[in-house]
């Protein structure tokens, strides 16, 4: 496939996609897929204006990558995550309430940037390896996810209590199993009845995951913060105080997990985040700590997971392009849009090289803009009453569930909230609520 490259057109396309990614990343409820589908819809007009389809695809890739950098900001500061950042809410919110919100943003930007480096260095060998292993992985995917789910439950330790009996730890594992199954049943019901979802506003890519994950991880945490009287303290401008080995491990585990899900059908970044969670040894999801060393360990665990989950989303967006080029499969809305514009069979080395340049340039711009926004947004929020922020965001999540998924989605949202809150009352990790996705996928593949 011959590509005539105009440097000016290339830069304009990158800037357009990068800007759209900032907007979709910062505004809860707006997904990068919305803009990808919009660009596809308007592609005939752009081509009539003399814009080749290559540059439309460039804007889609830049939008997708920029989004993965900036979407951490509403997840941390507002407790309003999109589908891919659901698990980042609790550790990010903890860092915010301890005065380290801006550091969490910098760590996230570092995780995404590190994932870009990881992907650029290992994209070709991993693409070759996955092209060979893909049929095997696809055959045993259900069992693999079952093992991951069991490991997630068995590693639950619960609340540490002095002089507790030796059998108490099994109580928390039982709680974890109950939460996993309850959310899994809810997810299975929601996915099977998704046809009952009648959006009041059709934006083209509404998913039942919006009310599910917003209720389990967003609204539930906001309600707990609201009733516990939490407030946003002055934010500290500290350097990133995290051991280098934890930074490297966070980048590698997140990037590796993100690269895996980019190749496998039915697997989202949320599931990859669960996989990355297994490699973070500290229980940063516990609501309370009793010792200084536990607090320090939780802080480091929270920071490492922020790096990992950011790396998951960025690696997934990059390796999705290679999955399209190598096996001709689309794993995201952005790749579906690119496949609509440019036939996957025509993708060659020249095209891939162009997109690696686009990825590098977008990542460079996104890294600095994410840090800039993260370092300054708290000044605006500091002028507002935190309880009013919580109420406003809760109302926004409720309204989005109603408008984008209809009354059925609103019902699912309301059911998901108490399930998400129950993890705090049972003193177990909220990541067990990812059974909402894991159990339906396991049942599908088995």
In terms of topology, how is this protein built?
Elements: H1 7-26, H2 32-48, H3 53-70, H4 72-77, H5 89-97, H6 101-139, H7 141-154, H8 168-192, H9 209-227, H10 244-261, H11 269-277, H12 292-327, H13 333-341, H14 349-382, H15 386-425, H16 435-445
Describe the structure.
The structure is a single chain. With 446 residues, the protein is mainly alpha-helical. Helix content is 73%, strand content 0%. It is built from 16 helices and no strands. α9 packs across α15 and α10 packs antiparallel against α11.
Low-confidence stretches: 289-293
- Gyration radius, to the nearest Å? 21 Å
- What is the element string, with H for helices and E for strands? HHHHHHHHHHHHHHHH
How far apart are the termini?
40 Å
Transmembrane segments: 7-30, 36-62, 104-126, 132-153, 174-191, 203-227, 247-280, 305-327, 351-371, 391-416, 428-445
Pfam families: TctA (PF01970)
Keywords: Membrane, Transmembrane, Transmembrane helix
Domain DUF112: 11-434
Short description:
This protein is mostly helical.
Comma- or semicolon-separated keywords:
73% helix, mainly alpha, 446 residues, 16 helices
